[in-house]
Amino acid sequence: MKNIIVTGGCGFLGTNLCRLLLEQGHNVYAVDNFFTGTKENAEFLKQYKSFNVIEHDVIEPLKVDFAVDEIYHLACPASPPYYQKEPIFTAKTSFCGALNMLELAKEKNAKILLTSTSEIYGEPLVHPQVETYRGNVNTIGIRSCYDEGKRISETLFFDYWRMYDLKIKVVRIFNTYGPFMQIDDGRVVTNFIRQAIYGEDITIYGDGTQTRSFCYVDDLVSGLEKMMNSRDDFRGPVNLGNPGEFTMLELADMVLEYIDTKSKIVFRPLPSDDPTRRRPDITLASEELGWKPGVALREGLKNTIKYFQERGI
Ligand code: NAD
Ligand code: UDP
How far is 241 from 144, CA to CA, in rounded Å? Predict the structure, then answer.
């Protein structure tokens, strides 16, 4: 049984990850300021006796009075409308948050994993994206607070390893969806499902030919756990995502197929710097972690729709 901190533990991925770790019998401490995470998620996790919440903003240093074996550092808003609403907070969370959690890991001699992102590849000129590709990121655009924030987080992680021999792990996550997302978080999967359930227009940004690769959350959190428990000299960065690639038009059609609705597709302006194509090369994850996703988009989408319908959103 380990003592594990999950920053951002009451957000979408955090709640799913905490649940997995709690079911494995660990003591889990979610550190969250509830910027995009919810008290409802915290209440759900409190059914497990070994779950604890520390309400804290990772922009500030964190002191804890217990031994820490592992830190999963997830804290950071991930949905474009939310991270763009508070871009300076997002940049500070990425830099100061990583620094403070690395300091905590150093003090406690804990292993620490960063959830970086496919966004660090920006508008990729290499397709599919391999970890050795260094990316094509705008430093001054509306997505930069997040993209550049995650790039400096990765840099800090590798500097702490080089300077202090800290045990680090860096994962680059591609678009993930599933239960415990917030229905109003503004990401494409939740937008389309919400719009279809309420019979509103399905908003496609741009012409809908841009692509994403969508990973079901159960697959993703199992990859995070495998990475944390991989051999010490495998630090990443490693891509985790589902290599199935879909246009937003294809995604909208699938949602319309599974939800009986009067919704129609409408087109809205494409936000600036919205990446055109995105698909992970997961050879490294498959070779090093023996990981590959098992849930296809259609199946995962059905589960996610069912989750929201049962909650009566
Ligand atoms: P989310 O917004 O649902 O969760 C983020 C959590 O972090 C929330 O609980 C939020 O309250 C908390 N948080 C934010 N800033 C904080 C701060 N300063 N101090 C303390 N807590 C703070 O997002 P998510 O989808 O669960 O993403 C989790 C992590 O995974 C993020 O680091 C994100 O960058 C990364 N990621 C996610 C995806 C995805 O598709 N979901 C893709 C790539 C990377
Ligand atoms: N998108 C869309 N309609 C929406 C929300 C998003 O067409 O209502 C598009 C968005 O422009 C992007 C893709 O869907 O091309 C994925 O967007 P999301 O915000 O989910 O993730 P990210 O852009 O960070 O990959």
Answer: 22
Nearest ligand to the C-alpha of residue 115? 1
CATH number, position 286: 3.40.50.720
Burial of 292 (0-12, 13-18, 19+ CB in 10 A): middle
Active site residues: 146
Range of the domain at 117: 3-177+215-243+277-295
- Interstrand relation of 265-268 and 202-205 (parallel, antiparallel or unpaired): parallel
Tell me if 204 CB under 6 Å of ligand 2: yes
The number of domains in the chain is 1
pTM over 0.85: yes
Task: Identify whether 308 is part of a domain.
Answer: no
DSSP H helices in 174-282: 188-198, 217-228, 248-258
Residue closest by Cα to atom 22 of ligand 1: 75
List average pLDDT for each run of 10 residues in the chain, which is 313 residues long.
98 98 98 98 98 98 98 98 97 98 98 98 97 97 98 98 98 98 97 98 98 98 98 98 98 97 97 97 98 98 97 87
Residue 210 lies inside a defined structural domain of this protein: no
